Amino acid sequence: MDEVTMMVSGFIEKDNRKIIRVSFLRDKCVAEGILPDGYIEKSEGFTEEETTRLESYMRANRQEIVRQAKEINPLRSWLRE
Predict the structure, then answer these.
(1) Rounded mean pLDDT of 2-17?
(2) How far apart are alpha carbons 27 and 77 in whole angstroms?
(3) I want to staple 20 with a disulfide (CB 3.0 to 4.6 A). Which of 5, 60, 69, 70 is the partner?
(4) pLDDT score, position 71
(5) Rounded to 5 degrees, what are φ and ψ at 37?
(6) Up-side HSE of residue 73: CA atoms within 13 Å toward CB?
(7) pLDDT score recorded for residue 81
(8) What is the pLDDT of residues 30-75, one digit of tens each?
(9) CA–CA separation, 25 and 68 (whole Å)
(10) Cα separation of 34 and 56, whole Å?
(11) Domain ranges for the chain
């Protein structure tokens, strides 16, 4: 797989639970996943095998991704613009 960039959201409340959105980007390919569930809910341009590997990556690195999400302060990011 070519170089893939991962973007992590802060915690988002959806359906009375907290989730983290994880996006994977490569050229024109995009995959969007959700934690704590650990699955890709939408993918464009990635093969099925690549999507499965991205899901495995999210599950294996769940703690690190959660740590990154905890560090995101949406208000501070908004004020910097």
Answers:
(1) 91
(2) 25
(3) 69
(4) 87
(5) -65, -35
(6) 5
(7) 52
(8) 999 999 999 999 999 999 999 999 999 999 999 999 999 988 866 5
(9) 17
(10) 12
(11) 5-80
Read off the pLDDT of residues 15-28 as tens digits, 9 standing for 90 and up.
899 999 999 999 99
* Total residue length of the chain: 81
User: How far is the C-alpha of 34 from the C-alpha of 54, rounded, in Å?
Assistant: 11
Q: Which helix (H) or strand (E) holds 77?
A: helix 74-80
Please check whether residue 5 is in contact with residue 25, taking contact to mean a CB–CB distance below 8 angstroms. Answer: yes
- Residue 74, classed as helix, strand or coil, is helix
- Ordered DSSP codes for 35-73: ETTTEEEEEES--HHHHHHHHHHHHHTHHHHHHHHHT--
- What angle is formed at CA 37 by the lines to CA 31 and CA 42, rounded to 5 degrees? 25
Token pair, residue 72, equals 């995101």
Q: What pLDDT is stored for residue 75 in this prediction? A: 57
Query: Please, are residues 26 and 4 in contact by the beta-carbon 8 Å criterion?
Result: yes
